[in-house]
Design goal:
alpha+beta, 8 strands, OB_MEIOB_N, single-stranded DNA binding, NA-bd_OB-fold, single-stranded DNA 3'-5' DNA exonuclease activity, MEIOB
Length: 136
């Protein structure tokens, strides 16, 4: 999967239920490869792996994701913690099987650069600042 990173979360940690006293780390990001299609990717793992992966790219970079696990998303649960996407799926990245490679978009596909500035919602699906000021 190749796309431009349009959003990214901070690294977070949670107590590991399987290994009491240890923590699992996670972070997520959203990639886009067309005007209408974008998808969330989530990675879980050891602190060193997650922090290193998170620091390896930023919003606006193009990434190639190799060997992600493609999983159906639980829409109601997913949308509490992740950006809403048009996809019924999410990408899960595994420390042992997945690879994320970063490259400047102009080296990968210059069309991806224009996707960075497109809104993710329909323009009729939100209020303008003028409407908010006028109507409270």
């Amino acid at each position: 999967v190749i796309g431009v990173v349009i959003g990214k979360t901070d690294v977070r940690s949670f107590p590991d239920r399987k290994n009491i006293g240890t923590e699992r780390f996670t972070f997520g990001f959203t990639i886009r490869d067309s005007p209408t299609y974008f998808i969330n990717a989530q990675s879980w793992g050891r602190e060193e792996y997650i922090k290193s992966l998170s620091e390896s790219f930023r919003v606006g970079d193009c990434v190639t994701i190799e060997n992600p696990l493609i999983q159906s998303k639980e829409a109601e649960r997913e949308e509490k913690f992740n950006p809403v996407t048009p996809s019924a799926y999410k990408l899960l990245l595994s420390e042992n099987h997945s690879v994320v490679k970063t490259s400047p978009c102009y080296n990968t596909d210059t069309r991806l650069l224009s996707l960075l500035h497109l809104p993710v919602k329909n323009p009729q699906d939100y209020y303008s600042l003028g409407d908010i000021v006028a109507n409270g």
